């Protein structure tokens, strides 16, 4: 038995050494810059034979560190060619974690190209000394022609959240419907089916500050008369986006070029948020107070999971955080806290105002937000019960002296008579 154990020891040590060679530290897996590349727009879509094509390429740093000097290179294959080889590589520069950048590339589609799907390679690297990382993308060329006469129309648009705030992510869901009401239609004596084909659908932003995170939908199949389909696009509103209504374009490739359509999709951005206003004087008497606030949702749509948390040095609040829950637009909610000064704090012994900070937290769709109100003060006031008692005693004593004086005066008058 001892010999077996001794022979196993070198084997175990060897296995440990081998496994250590192939082990990757956990910090290496999550740290460092990491680039994610996406084609966010193809214009026109699908690409047209014998014409130029504009590709909008987005790069996002999904790693934990800054990418110091990002390059994007496009490697076209037949039937695509660059307008100029000098434009094959484009520099973005530094890209911080969580940030995105876009660049446009111009390609020519050969006049002898065939309809169908062709591939193109896009390469990225985080700095000049790092290796290239590449990814292949499919580009659709040309539109198939079908004899079907169904027409696809935009039936409904739903944004979640209804109104975005700068920095928000959310979805835009469109419902497409085949407006045909009968299975067939006769045109010039020829019968046609009324199926509608959605060969492709792409959502494109038309203004800065809006990013569509999804590639185009392709080959969505056939819609019979009256049938509908929902397409959901993930979108992001950047922190720099301006307030107001931004327009996106939904481009739909139907049965043929004659049935292609472009629809305007509005997206609203508004930065108004939760307001917190004191509803009565913020005073603390002998280290205790009941403070009250009006909480208002000034945003155009509902907020969820609304909560208010007060903080002040040397003061404890009950409850520590007030959870309101959902709040509709323009809804007003009145909340109340009990404030108690800590025994070890100087609040009980000072008349100086104490700074009060209120944190309002809430959800707009899937996005958590917080805004701070910090220009509020609690005024400590000390009321001494001992002084009040002394004043009462002094008053009673004066009254007693007055009564005694009156009695002595009356007695003296009677004796004079």
Automatic annotation (TrEMBL):
One of the GO biological process terms: proteolysis
Entry keywords, A to Z: Hydrolase, Membrane, Protease, Secreted, Transmembrane, Transmembrane helix
A Pfam family this chain is assigned to: CARDB
Domain Gram-positive cocci surface proteins LPxTG positions: 382-417
Transmembrane intervals: 391-409
GO function terms (MF aspect): peptidase activity
Protein name as catalogued: Putative carboxyl-terminal-processing protease, deltaproteobacterial
Organism encoding this protein: Methanosarcina thermophila (strain ATCC 43570 / DSM 1825 / OCM 12 / VKM B-1830 / TM-1)
């Amino acid at each position: 038995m001892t010999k077996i154990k001794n022979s196993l020891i070198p084997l175990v040590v060897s296995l440990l050494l081998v496994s250590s060679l192939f082990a990757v530290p956990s910090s290496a897996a999550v740290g460092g810059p990491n680039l994610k590349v996406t084609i966010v727009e193809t214009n026109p879509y699908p690409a047209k034979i014998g014409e130029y094509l504009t590709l909008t390429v987005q790069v996002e740093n999904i790693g934990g560190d800054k990418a110091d000097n990002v390059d994007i290179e496009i490697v076209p294959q037949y039937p695509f060619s660059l307008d100029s080889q000098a434009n094959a590589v484009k520099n973005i520069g530094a890209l911080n974690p969580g940030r995105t950048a876009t660049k446009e590339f111009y390609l020519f589609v050969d006049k002898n190209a065939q309809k169908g799907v062709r591939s193109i390679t896009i390469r990225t690297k985080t700095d000049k000394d790092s290796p290239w990382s590449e990814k292949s993308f499919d580009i659709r060329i040309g539109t198939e022609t079908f004899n079907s006469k169904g027409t696809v129309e935009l039936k409904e648009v739903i944004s979640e959240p209804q109104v975005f705030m700068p920095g928000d992510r959310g979805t835009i869901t469109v419902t497409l419907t085949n407006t045909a009401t009968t299975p067939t239609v006769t045109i010039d004596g020829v019968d046609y089916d009324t199926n509608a084909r959605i060969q492709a659908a792409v959502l494109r932003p038309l203004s800065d500050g809006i990013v569509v995170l999804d590639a185009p939908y392709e080959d969505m199949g056939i819609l019979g008369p009256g049938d509908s389909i929902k397409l959901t696009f993930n979108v992001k509103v950047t922190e720099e986006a301006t307030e107001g209504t931004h327009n996106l374009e939904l481009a739909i490739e139907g049965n043929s070029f004659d049935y292609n359509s472009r629809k305007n999709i509005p997206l609203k951005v508004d930065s108004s948020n939760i307001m917190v206003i004191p509803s009565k004087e913020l005073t603390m008497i002998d280290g205790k107070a009941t403070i009250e606030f009006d909480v208002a949702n000034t945003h155009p749509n509902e907020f969820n999971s609304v909560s208010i948390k007060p903080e002040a040095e040397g003061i404890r609040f009950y409850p520590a955080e007030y959870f309101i829950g959902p709040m509709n637009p323009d809804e007003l909610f009145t909340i109340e806290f009990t404030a108690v000064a800590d025994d070890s704090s100087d609040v009980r012994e000072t008349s100086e105002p104490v700074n009060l900070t209120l944190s309002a937290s809430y959800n707009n769709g899937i996005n958590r937000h917080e805004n701070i109100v910090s220009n509020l003060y609690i005024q400590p006031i000390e009321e001494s019960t001992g002084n009040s008692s002394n004043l009462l005693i002094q008053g009673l004593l004066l009254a007693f002296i007055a009564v005694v004086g009156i009695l002595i005066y009356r007695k003296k008058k009677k004796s004079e008579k």
